[in-house]
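Can anyone check this?
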Amino acid sequence: MRFLYNTLLLIAAVPGLIFFSLKILITGKYRNSFIQKLGGRQESMLAGLKKGTRVWIHAVSVGEVTAAAPIVASIKNRRPDVQVVFSTSTETGQGMAKGLVKEADAFIYFPLDFPCAVHKTLNLVRPSVFALVETEIWPNFLVACNRRGISSLIVNGRISPRSFGKYQKTGFFWRRILENIAEAGMISDIDASRITGIGMAAGKIKVLGNAKYDALAAMASPALHEDIAGRLQVQNHEKFLVAGSTHPGEEDAVIEAYKKLLARYPEFRLILVPRHIERTRDVIGVLRQAGLNDIITYTEISSGRPRRNEKVIVVDVIGELFKIYSLGTIVYCGGSLVPKGGQNILEAAAWGRVIFYGPSMEDFSQEAALLEDAGAGIRIRDARELSEGMLEILADPQDARRRGERGRAVVLANMGAAERYAEMIIRHTG
């Protein structure tokens, strides 16, 4: 099966190379990472490493970086002598990691799963332990680690229902690959049962919780709130509906709800953060069709255009959503009124906000259950319920504040997972 996998990789390499080349030429995307993903130009990134035990932690992109940050901090707090090499798959993730994971000793890009790229990068890093955050299983890489005696671990492991279905269809293949993983720390019992269902031995699996609770609780600071409020030139009288990580089909519902809020509360503003920033032009088009022409983008503000009380801010950059949630009087989390599995509602909960979301929360079902029990998470079915629910919450500000604080208490009460993951990683360093 690995022979077939590698054959398919080679077949995909030609169109993949054309795709990356065009992206680099046309948009500049991948320009700073493509050669590194093939195993080249990584030496300078690792030049400052000292001799001794090395732990390689991999976080695919922005969300995984958030979970990894407190784990790295815990490792360095327990074992300052351990050298931590931190990799990401995306340039955005790497930029965020350099700002957030202060304790890492070196930052690199994770290699594409071609044997030559994998072996070249492993020869440079020479880790004792490799820990992947959440679940991104690369067969050639894991097999290579096992053959070199490198312990491969899963930390903060999560398997979404959609990923589980895909893995199950080829479970005979993944069962063999998972044999190369020494231990898996999963977020919840559901995630543990799913990785068992794919084929990992039950004795290798532990449920250790969600390290994102640790990260978000630590990050939600008044200084961060003041920073983003200053950047967006927020006025004292303004209140905000923040709609985060929206997908096509959701902006219409958000706009309908916002217009009803605006009719009752003229001081309300809308901050729209599409899940994919390349949709910015389409989102602005939807706003204009709905009669909302008073629009400014995050990039325009950052470029020096004064914000003159525009009612709508469209965030067309990556990595700012967590801070922007702090501005929300009320919050909607996207990917949930459309069948996308939801987005991370803990980010808004960490700021003590009441959060609305749709029925599709399969990827964050446990988080939704916790916040709903606290009254801080409100599940709606359509645009009508969204607008009615928001108006009801806003009618009683003291109740909204209490609900939000109970949601923040949920985040604080679930801290401690990062320490458990750090302990697991250190144990495998020998």
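Reply from J.R.: I decoded it. The chain has two domains: 2-12+25-210+415-427, 218-413.
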